[in-house]
Specification:
The structure holds two protein chains of two kinds. By secondary structure, chain A is α/β, with parallel strands linked by helices. Chain A has one domain: Rossmann fold. Helices cover 28% and strands 28% of the residues of chain A. Chain A has six helices and nine strands. In chain A, a hairpin with a 3-residue loop joins strand 1 and strand 2. Chain B is mainly α. In chain B, 44% of the residues are buried. Classes of the chains: A alpha/beta, B mainly alpha. Chains A and B meet through loops of A and helix 9 and helix 10 of B.
């Protein structure tokens, strides 16, 4: 799987990053870092198709339903159970992820009764249940303890051959532990 | 079939029998079921008055509850309801124009004329809202516009009332109280047709409503175009509410109370389940309210909106106190 970015410009009302020419491929973990407000989240949202691109082309043949996107924030939700959260819209899911992430004991728990770290794991599980070909994680280590961060790192190493993995992170210790050669910094409206 | 569905269907059949057999004149329910009534006027009463009235009451309650369930999900607000978009206000303005300005359609019975103006008024407000939805693309803005349209309608009605004859003011007030009187099978067939379109749409979109619970991003990633789907939802809700309001007047609270009660009691969030139960129990609530208003238990005829409000408000209060208890 690969994603080609050709001369793309991204932003909201104003351009945040321009002239991005890059290719993401499966088999690697890509880390995107940079200062606050530089456009990291905007960039990955554009890659996922959640925000329209302002110029240029993003070329890939990954269907929307095969894109996993883990937000850095917890969206406001009504009182639903973890089981309902994991099942809505997802059919024939690989249930192994639920056991692997140790969240089978939470299935009947309400989303509102999970801590932020627990919800992070559940949200990640939902994205993995889609069998994604592109997995984007925006600040995935927020609210996670050291043990869970370590497990997340191992999980990403496990799945990187089956999908394109892109991680937005300020956590230098975490992304160094991923041993990836692709650490991209957003700086001065460019991706370096 | 779940327990709640079974209880609902049993209660529905019971209420239907009660509504058909009891009233100013009692007809034995056994005779009704056998179709073996002694007098022609009894048969007329059952077939041309009580049965269509009961069907209308059920369908009105069912449609309003379904619309309420859809609106609560779209606006992510448990106090949203079928009147949130202000469609009722359009219907009220249409009726006010008809009654106060004497705008009756030539050669048409005044009752039918009022029905027509109510429907046209509701649809006019609906199309104004859909236009603004296309322009602004925000549900919050739509909520504000619905509210503003309501105030516009109210203002015009106040002006009409200032210069109106007392007879017309009385007629308008009676319309505002809601009523299932003067129902016929033509009205029921129109409502059945419109309702079926609404129900098919709602159940086909149940998955979309489930995904709405998880946030806009998740909905978009599953391939749904939220703007386009919102437009269709508002159109279907608008037509259902316009039809109910035209036939029965502006009915209060059913659309807010019933879906909340279903969610509170069942603790379910799956919209396939919520839509089904909203239809059944919304219909039951209106049928029960109609039973109470028809002078069966006491010698006076009561306004349907008053009874619906008294039945629905406790549900809303329980919901609010339950949310406070759970810290929501």
């Amino acid at each position: 799987m690969e994603i080609k970015c050709k001369n793309i410009r991204i932003g909201y009302q104003k351009i945040l990053i321009q002239d991005i020419n890059f290719q993401f491929t499966s088999g690697n973990i890509y880390v995107i870092t940079g200062k606050n407000g530089e456009g990291k989240t905007c960039f990955v949202r554009t890659l996922a198709g959640l925000t329209p691109v302002l110029g240029g082309e993003i070329l890939h043949d990954i269907p929307l339903q095969k894109i996993g996107f883990l937000n850095h924030f917890k969206p406001s939700m009504p009182n639903i159970t973890v089981e309902e959260y994991l099942s809505y819209g997802i059919h024939s899911a690989n249930q192994n992820w639920i056991q692997k992430l140790n969240i089978d004991k939470w299935l009947q728990k309400s989303i509102h009764h999970l801590s932020d770290g627990e919800f992070k794991k559940v949200a990640l599980c939902r994205q993995l249940l889609k069998n994604p070909q592109l997995l984007i994680l925006d600040e995935p280590t927020n609210f996670l303890d050291r043990e869970n961060k370590r497990e997340l790192g191992l999980l990403l190493q496990e799945i990187k051959n089956d999908c394109v993995v892109i991680v937005v992170s300020h956590d230098e210790h975490f992304y160094n532990s991923l041993s990836t050669e692709y650490v991209l910094e957003v700086k001065d409206c460019n991706l370096v | 079939m779940t327990k709640i569905t079974i209880y609902g269907l049993v209660l529905l059949i019971l209420l239907l029998i009660l509504n058909v057999s009891l009233g100013a004149i009692t007809i034995e329910w056994v005779e009704v079921l056998k179709g073996n009534m002694d007098y022609d006027w009894q048969k007329w009463l059952v077939i041309h008055d009580r049965l269509p009235r009961s069907f209308l009451a059920f369908l009105c309650g069912a449609n309003l509850a379904l619309c309420g369930a859809m609106m609560q999900s779209i606006f992510n607000n448990p106090l949203a309801g079928p009147t949130t978009l202000g469609i009722n206000s359009g219907a009220s303005l249409g009726v006010a124009v008809s009654i106060f300005l004497g705008s009756y359609i030539p050669f048409m019975h005044p009752q039918i004329s009022i029905l027509f103006f109510s429907f046209v008024g509701a649809l006019l407000f609906l199309f104004i809202l859909l236009y603004f939805h296309k322009v602004f693309k925000s549900v919050t803005t739509l909520l504000i516009i619905g509210l503003l349209l309501g105030y516009v309608s109210f203002s015009f009605i106040e002006i009409f009332i200032k210069f109106a004859q007392s007879k017309n003011i009385q007629n308008f007030a009676f319309w505002g109280m809601g009523s299932f009187n003067n129902t016929n099978w033509l009205m029921v067939s129109v409502l059945v047709t419109v309702s079926m379109v609404g129900y098919v749409f709602a159940f086909k979109k149940a998955n979309l409503f489930n995904l709405l619970l998880l946030g806009k991003d998740e909905l978009q990633l599953m391939g749904y175009n939220i703007q386009k789907n919102r437009l269709y939802i508002f159109l279907i809700v608008g037509v259902l509410v316009a039809t109910v309001t035209a036939f029965a007047g502006p009915l209060a609270f059913v659309g807010v109370a019933v879906p909340n009660a279903i969610k509170m009691i069942s603790k379910q969030s799956n919209h396939q389940f919520i839509f089904k139960q909203s239809i059944i129990w919304g219909g039951i609530l209106c049928l029960f309210a109609d039973f109470l208003t028809r002078g069966v238990l006491w010698d006076i005829i009561l306004p349907i909106n008053a009874i619906l409000s008294l039945l629905s408000l406790p549900i809303i209060f329980i919901f609010l106190f339950q949310n406070k208890y759970h810290g929501n």
